[in-house]
Design a protein that fits this description.
There is one protein chain. The chain is mostly helical. It has one domain. It has nine helices and no strands. Helix 3 runs antiparallel to helix 4. The radius of gyration is 21 Å and the shape is elongated. It starts with a helix and ends with a helix. 39% of the residues are buried.
């Protein structure tokens, strides 16, 4: 019994310590965010890595998600003669939920893992310690550019994901299932509001910050050599994905 209590207490202490370190790193990142130097070149490089390099996966995922969503919705709505609402369902689903969530999960798996692996490798090879000796703050030099890249590029990728998914749904509905294109477009315009788009983009901003902070945290505190880098990379993806889904529910409850 005492052994179980020891394990429980140790787990709680480790969890609280990790949360505290994440909050401290987040606060340090925010305090360095608006202080010079801005390091625009590093930020642009990270924006390319997070945004541009993720485009092929985003386009493929979004297009087929919109197609599947349209196909399933059309099949269900056909049972009670509501095929004209397929466009509305696809548009609302992509802008409110699927667009930001899918984009966040993809970027967490592709760019977040790379951030954790890169910083983890720098940590175990003592390159981060070398920055201190050069009077360079590693948070400002390494984490802030990645944070800004996640904050800016996630909404932009979400916009592309939304548009691609809606176009994929339109293609399947009109060309394959024989839906009326005019009715499809009008129904979408009638029920899709700007608040639906803005709420999805706000979620994307939050997801971008989560991915950057968690990935950089896992890499920044890596221990144990190459094996530790692998653990940090895996943990960064898992924790980021879980937090994206948790915060998706919280933001949905608050926004809608």
């Amino acid at each position: 019994m005492l052994r179980w209590l020891d394990l429980l207490g140790e787990s709680i202490i480790n969890f609280v310590n990790e949360v505290g370190r994440v909050l401290l790193l987040s606060w340090t990142t925010l305090t360095w965010l608006f202080r010079p130097p801005l390091r625009a070149k590093l930020t642009l490089k990270q924006m390319e890595h997070v945004g541009v390099n993720s485009l092929p996966v985003i386009l493929i995922t979004a297009s087929f998600t919109g197609m599947v969503l349209a196909l399933q919705s059309f099949t269900g709505f056909k049972r009670f003669n509501a095929e004209s609402m397929v466009g509305t369902v696809v548009a609302l689903s992509m802008t409110r939920e699927l667009g930001p969530v899918l984009t966040g999960l993809i970027v967490a798996g592709r760019a977040g893992s790379a951030m954790a692996a890169e910083l983890g490798t720098m940590k175990v090879t003592e390159q981060i310690d070398a920055l201190y000796t050069l009077a360079t703050d590693p948070v400002k030099y390494l984490i802030v550019p990645r944070f800004i890249a996640g904050l800016i590029m996630l909404p932009l990728l979400t916009i592309i994901c939304d548009i691609t998914g809606i176009l994929g749904g339109y293609f399947i509905s009109v060309n394959l299932l024989g839906a009326n294109p005019i009715s499809y477009i009008r129904r979408t315009e009638q029920y899709l509001e700007f608040n639906d788009i803005y709420s999805g983009l706000f979620k994307a901003c939050v997801f971008g910050m989560i991915i950057a902070l968690i990935a950089c945290y896992q890499g920044f505190y890596t221990k144990g050599g190459a094996e530790g880098v692998g653990r940090a990379t895996t943990k960064a993806v898992v924790v980021s994905s879980m937090l994206i889904l948790i915060f998706d529910y919280i933001l949905t409850a608050l926004l809608f």
